[in-house]
Amino acid sequence: MSDRTITIGLLQHASPLAASKQDILDRVAALAADAVKQGAQVIATQELFVSHYFCQREDPALMDLAESIPDGPTCSFMRSLAKKLKVEITASLYERRAAGVYHNTSVYIDSRGDVIGKYRKMHIPDDPRFSEKFYFTPGDLAWQVAHGAHAKCGMLVCWDQWYPEAARLTALAGAEILFYPTAIGWWHGETAQDKKAQRDAWITMHKAHAIANGVFVAAINRIGVENDLKFWGTSFVCDPAGQVIAEAPVDEPSVLVVPCNLSMIEEQRRGWPFLRDRRIDAYAGITQRLVDG
User: Does residue 158 carry a catalytic annotation?
Assistant: First the structure.
């Protein structure tokens, strides 16, 4: 099979409360330029990259952080950046759809600066220090695959990463790479054992998506301490065999530039033909909350 390699660039950084939006945008622009210099053809941001992770508390005033798509200031900046650098960008934004209706949204921007894909986060958590149901309306654009110039890119977001259904349906829609912009970290009061178990589970889940679907998976996480959370970075890429082929540090900014040979998908699916062997005639129960005995 012929080699079909795409090089992706993951941007891992802190987005501290004290930093202005313009400070963060300038930082991201510099990281993106570095990624392009290293050969990146598609750049991916972390979740809600342009601000601190504001969902740790419920405050209606923080909904003012939401912006329109595609013409809001952050999306416009990223569109201009993609055009300037001649690169494709998938960016995670807080979308203002209408008064009182806001989404956690990823956009896919081509090298001309046009938004060619949009996905609204489907699974919304509501846990201590992750009060996302207060801020985000559940998504209604499932399951999106952006057809970029170099690859078919699946667009998922953070909490979606714990749901095999989301990965499977996006892969079935043709995705070759699943992108998961993420904001995940530890609460200061957790034990070292708990912290290790959580991070290991997070990595394992992504590897499982890659194996079960025969696709590349890219997770992009933030770093830094924000109020009660320390974000654990560790942005990484795994191949269709579930092998981690590149990984960023836990607590340092990183431009992770990773070549992905997409021809490996065909090879992997021939050896492990999980999609071929699915019993789609027997899965009716998956649409129920529980299958009662």
Answer: yes
